[in-house]
Design brief:
Elements: H1 27-53, H2 70-115, H3 121-132, H4 140-162, E1 168-171, H5 176-181, E2 185-191, H6 196-211, E3 216-221, H7 226-231, E4 239-244, E5 247-253, H8 272-281, H9 293-300, H10 302-320, H11 324-327
Parallel strand pairs: 1-3, 2-3
Antiparallel strand pairs: 2-4, 4-5
Length: 329
């Protein structure tokens, strides 16, 4: 081949061909526009079909009951207030339950002291000193109120003991009026010395008298007090009459309502707790129900509760079991 002319660049074989624009000529571009239009049309048809089945599906919520309506907002506020009230009531119940448990724990402590007899004056003095020596200013008012309450109770206890409380005494007819009018609460047992049931009642009342110094416990021989037997219409022995400020208000006739009904001889072999509970029901004594095993477990823990319960059961064996002489009478 002849040599290239001077001054003109040499052209490659690839340069002889030109790139073709695929959109030129309009055919491909028209096909693309048609595809887009088809897809948009299909989407519009789908939406139209959807709204035909559920007209509210695409509507803008403007009703009063909708999420932005006033009624909805008011309802939501009521629900929130109801939840708050429910929480408040729940908190109050929890607080009341906690206070009840604390009160029951104090009652159990008092009951345990009653089982051992009158409260120790030495223990009271020690507790009063501890309260007086406290330096917590935030509890000062509470401490002062507790000290005043304890001193009042202690003074009342000493006054009652001076009147013959805390023991079970026998009186004669001439002493009857001064005795039953000399204390706020008095239990008088009208008995017959040959009646076995009167002996059983004596045994229980003597135990209760030692536990409840808030009430005076006395007994009188019905044969030697005919005037008061007739005046009070005593028809059955034993009968324990409860006096408030010298006025007879209640009575326990025989073992009605306190006897056990199971087993041979159970009529006369009931626990002291039965009579104690009965006197508490009529207000004659400040009765406290004995703690259950569950309450002991909650207060002392499982292991300690076992020892405490076992100890109380051992102490109560002589308290609520009768001797052969009485059972066989």
């Amino acid at each position: 081949p002849p040599p290239p002319l001077p001054g003109k660049p040499k052209m490659s074989k690839a340069a002889k061909f030109q790139m073709v624009d695929p959109t030129e000529g309009g055919l491909i571009q028209q096909m693309m526009h048609q595809e887009v239009n088809d897809r948009m049309g299909k989407a519009v048809e789908d939406l139209a079909e959807k709204y035909a089945k559920n007209p509210q599906a695409g509507a803008v919520e403007t009703s009063e009951n909708g999420p932005t309506g006033a009624a909805y907002k008011a309802q939501n506020a009521e629900r929130a207030a109801a939840r708050q009230e429910q929480q408040r009531q729940s908190n109050e119940r929890a607080r009341a339950e906690a206070e009840a448990k604390m009160q029951r724990a104090e009652e159990i402590a008092t009951w345990e002291a009653q089982q051992a007899g009158a409260e120790s004056d030495d223990d009271d003095e020690e507790l009063l000193r501890e309260l007086e020596e406290g330096d917590d200013h935030e509890l000062q008012k509470l401490r002062e109120a507790r000290i005043a309450e304890m001193r009042k109770a202690r003074n009342q206890h000493m006054e009652n003991m001076a009147k013959g409380h805390g023991q079970y005494r026998e009186i004669v007819q001439d002493e009857f009026l001064p005795e039953v009018t000399g204390s706020l609460r008095v239990i008088c047992h009208f008995y017959h010395r040959e009646f076995t049931k009167c002996q059983v009642m004596d045994m229980h009342l003597e135990r209760i008298a030692q536990r409840h110094a808030e009430t005076k416990f006395i007994k009188i021989n019905a044969e030697k007090a005919p005037f008061f037997v007739q005046k009070l219409a005593i028809r059955t022995l034993p009968t324990a009459v409860y006096f408030v400020d010298g006025v007879a208000t209640e009575r326990q006739v025989g073992f009605e309502g306190i006897r056990d009904t199971n087993g041979e001889g159970a009529e006369e072999t009931f626990p002291t707790e039965n009579l104690e509970r009965r006197l508490g029901e009529i207000g004659a004594i400040d009765y406290i129900a004995p703690p259950s095993s569950e309450e002991y477990r909650e207060l002392y823990g499982k292991q300690m509760a076992h020892h405490v319960t076992a100890g109380l059961q051992e102490l109560s064996m002589d308290d609520d079991c009768f001797t052969g002489d009485i059972n066989q009478a």
